[in-house]
Structure formats: structure tokens, C-alpha cells
Amino acid sequence: MLITGAPVILLVGFDASTNGGVMSVKRSVGRPVKVDYKIMMKLATALEHSATISDACRYAQISRDSYYRHVQSEPEFAEKMRVAKENQFKLTNFLTVY
User: Fold this and answer.
1) 30 torsion bin: left (phi>0), alpha (psi -120 to 50), beta (else)
2) Which long-range contacts (CB under 8 A, 24 or more apart) does 77-86 make?
3) Which has the least CB within 10 A, 3, 52, 53, 66?
4) pLDDT per residue as tens digits for the range 13-69
5) Distance CA 98, CA 96 (A)
6) Nearest to 88, CA basis, from 42, 44, 49
7) What is the pTM for the complete model shown?
């Protein structure tokens, strides 16, 4: 039977063998990340349309430092940016009329 208004308790990581049976609750600590999927797609789109990294960061509203920090620490982000830079010239060449 579910009572409305009753507090919900989430037991995460309960282990009776450690900490004398005291449960630990994992909590998110610190600031939320600035570069999420939406920002990553804005950056990739800007880079594919021949924007510089500075212009792409300005468009996505993040700093260049954040961009380079995520390139170094997040392999998925780095791969997405590498592919976007490679596709930059393919998009331009596709639209070129000879």
C-alpha cells in the first residue's frame, strides 16, 4: 500500500561488512558540467560549417578553456569534435559548383 506524502528512502551501496553496517548514499557533489550533449552538438554543427574553435565556443556559449578541458578529459567529446572538423571540408566541397 502506497501512502501519499510519505518520504521515499533510497538505499544505495548498503554493505553491512563496511562502516559497521552504516549505509552510504552517493550524492552528486560540485557544479554541474557545462558541456552537455546539447552544447556538444552546437559545437559540432558550428565546426562543420567552417567556424573556428573560438567562434564555435562563442556560438555554444562556453569558454575556449572549457572546450579544451573537455577535449582532454572526455574521449567521446574529443572524437565528436575530431569528426566535425574532418567533415568541415566535405560539406564545403559538396556545395561547391564547378
Assistant:
1) left
2) 77/35, 77/40, 80/40, 80/44, 81/43, 81/44, 81/47, 83/44, 84/43, 84/44, 84/45, 84/47, 84/48, 85/47
3) 3
4) 444 455 554 444 555 678 777 788 999 999 999 999 889 999 999 999 999 999 999
5) 6
6) 49
7) 0.61
